[in-house]
Amino acid sequence: MIVGHGIDLQDMGAIAELIVKKPAIISKILRPKELTVFEHLPEARRLEHLAGRWSAKEAFAKAYGTGIVKGCGFQDLEILADERGRPIFTKHPFEGKVHVSISHSGSFAQASVILEGGEHGH
Question: Among 49, 104, 120, 122, which one carries the catalytic annotation?
Answer without folding.
Answer: 104
